[in-house]
Amino acid sequence: MDQAEKTRIEERIVDVLKTVYDPEIPVDIWNLGMIYKVEVKEDGVVDLDMTFTAPNCPAADFILEDVRTKVESVEGVASANVNLVFEPAWDQSMMSEEARVELGFE
Question: Cys-Cys with 16: which of 9, 58, 69, 70 at CB 3.0–4.6 Å?
């Protein structure tokens, strides 16, 4: 797999991540800034680091499974390792401008 193909797969992964929502927040997890890393390896395995807006998110299991399932549905992805991390801690500055507007922070 060359770098161009990895980039295409990463772009498709970002597209599907924009369809994943925390049920309590009307903005997708990508624009909320909850995805810290997307790495596509040569064998099609994806390592993804993500966080939550709060460590005790009641929908954590649902969101993690939704992310894994959707990323694994992307053509070219063999499997996905979704790692939940809390460093750095999420804060509102990680949100896209679109998310800040949608949530009334701008």
Answer: 70
Residue whose pair of structure tokens reads 């549905």 in the numeric block? 73
Distance CA 18, CA 14 (A): 6
pLDDT, one tens digit per residue, over 51-99 is: 998 888 888 999 999 999 999 999 999 999 999 999 999 999 999 999 9
pLDDT digits (tens, 9 = 90+) for 26-53: 999 999 999 999 999 999 999 999 999 8
Nearest to 105 by CA among 92, 87, 88: 92
The answer to whether 97 touches 106, Cβ cutoff 8 Å, is: yes
- Residue 84: strand pairing partners: 50
pTM for the structure as a whole = 0.92
Are 79 and 46 in contact by the 8 Å Cβ rule? The answer is yes
Cis peptide before 26 (omega within 30 of 0): no
